[in-house]
Each structure stands twice: as C-alpha cells, then as structure tokens.
Structure prediction request, 396 residues.
Amino acid sequence: MSRLVLPILFLIVVFEIIYPQPALAGLPVKYLPGFEGSLPFQLETGYIGVGEADEVQLFYYFIKSQSNPKIDPLIYWFTGGPGCSPLSAILYELGPVTLDIRAYNGSLPTLSLNPYAYTKVANMIFVDLPVGTGFSYATTQKANYSDDLQSAHYAYEFLRKWFVEHQEYLKNPFYVAGDSYSGITVPIVTEVISNGIDMGIKPWINLKLVKDIYQYNILEPPCELASYESRRSLIENIQKLKNPATHSGIKCRGQWHDLGLIWANDKNVQDALHVRKTNGAWEECRSNISFGAIIDNTIPYHENLSRKGFRSLIYSGDHDMVVPFISTEAWITSLNYPIVVDWKPWIVDGQVAGYTRSYSNQMTFATVKGGGHTAPESKPVECFSMLKRWLSYEPL
Prediction:
C-alpha cells in the first residue's frame, strides 16, 4: 500500500463562512469491549446524511488528539479498496487502540493501546465511504450506487455538515490523507473541496450564523451603514447624525463612516469642493444607480495584460469575508504562471505584515495580515510600505 498525505492550505478560513443545514451531533463512546478500563482518549461516532434527501447515511469515527486537540491538526482519513472501512486503519494502522496479536481462544478479542497512534498528535476523522462501506448505508436502491466523483462530493458534503457541530476545529490546520486506493480518492476529494471553496461560497452561507459578524473585517464589531430608500430619509438621517448624542464615541467602523456622511453633505464642504447641486445628498454607496454588470470574468484580462508585460500587485486583507483572499489566490493560480519566489512573510517595523508570492508574469500577490475588505483603511502603515516597495521595484 502506498500512503499519500496532501495538505489543504487556507481551507479553515473559508469553512468559517460555509455552513449547510445543521447535522445531528455524534455521540461519545464511553468504552470499547475488549479494552480494560475507561478509554484514555475521546471517541465520537455517528451518522451524517448526504445526497438528495440525505438518502446516503455515512458512518464516521472522530477521535480527538491525545495531546492538544484545540491546536493540533485535523486529519480527514480515507481507507482504500474502494470499500474498505477505516475501522481497519484504526485497529491495525494508526488508531489509539490495536487488536492484540494472540491466539484466539473463542472469547472476545482484546484491545490494547497503540504507542504509535496518529491520534497522539492529531485529531482524526474516519468515514465509511463510499456508501455501503462499513456501517454506511443508503435508504433507497438507487442511492446504493456510487463512483469516485460522487463519493468525493459526498465526502465534501459530509465535512461541511460535520463542521456545523464541531466549529471549534475550524481554526485547526487541516489535512486530507489516506492509503492504498486513496491515492485516487484523496486528490479527487481535495479537488472537490478546492472547487467548492472557489465556486460555491455564497450559496452555502448560512446568514443566521454570520449575521453578527462584520463581513468586511471579521474581527471588528458589526456596525453597518443604514440603507436609505429616499433622499428624504437620507437627509433626515444626516440631521440625526449631527446630534452629538448620537455618537458618544466611535465604537465601530460604521460610526466612523457616519462622520464622513455628515462631512460630505455639509454646504461649506461642498462649496469648497465646487460641488454642483444636481445629485442630491451624498451617499457613500448608492444602490439605485442605473448600471449593468456584463463582465463576470476578468481573468482573460489579466492574462492579456501579462502577455503585454505589465507588472501587477494583487493584495488582499486576510480578514475580509466578502472577497476572501483564498478566492483571489485561486484565480491567480488558474493562470498557471511559474512561481518565482514562493510564500514568504513580508515585514514592516520588525513584524510580519502578511505573506507574499511572486510569479514569472511579473505578478506579485500579497496578503495583509489583519487587513479587511479595504486593507489600507484597516492597515494603513503596512499598505503604505507595500506600495512604496512595489513602486520602487523592491521585494515586499
């Protein structure tokens, strides 16, 4: 058997906003027949439904790390076959217990601790997949059929549902791994996960779960600007904002933007700016303009500009949930340009300001650590340094 272990980078950030409908929680396993005493590790098992009407019920084993489950990696393990249950991996390969090697005497085989268990350093999920493997089953005859691609999609659906009940592991490093036939399974599952992140984020957002998060910078308190349906309501709101009692202090970014609304609608300001009185009250984001969005893919434009020899700097705040930096990375990767300098930190004032990678098409991609949707707004010092260096043809 050959073993293939593939890391999935940047996956956890996206899972913070990808939630399907809640799944049923698994149940803790308190003891294992054949093992003496209480279990010195935490084991959970259960079923999660996938497919149309949850007609495929996938059985899983989740074993917490015996070291530090809060920070240790989370490994999603697939066993070969296809059709081999991962229980075999648990009992014979890498689980916290192993079947004792002794002559069978007619009694229940016994278990002992595995001193080389992967669970000593990692949290692990094992799933009976494809359907029909182990304890997994289908509720209809048609759903008993499966193939590589369908199983990969089921694996992804399972994982999304599992995270609903185990959100504390969203921040852990995440890996997909397996052995034997999983040399095929693992890369397909990885591809499905990657495509799901790149193409399917918005349809899976559960607004109830993220409604209290400021999506433009997930670590800041939410304080969105109000929407205005008419000029009258906007003007009335501006008058209200001018009342000092409205803002006892700037507690969130939205209140800071309110001050800009007051400022830009002041007559003296508009006079100084030579503003003509034709557009009504000023709004930071006007929703009722007449505009047609007819371009939905700008990647060909990037390709064309690269062929013409233009340099480019693409940057993303890594706390932006509206346009996640992993989506930016995905379309850059799709250009298939060779990497000149792979990921490395860029430093400002002795501190890591983000991470950067450069490509042969004179494109530089940089993340801004702690930056939001408009990164220079939340990280002005870092973005200014980034711009100066890039304009000077210096490495970030």
Notes: The radius of gyration is 27 Å. Residues 1-23, 198-207, 225-231 have pLDDT under 50 and may be disordered. Residues 99 and 111 are 5 Å apart (CA to CA). Residues 216-287 form one domain.
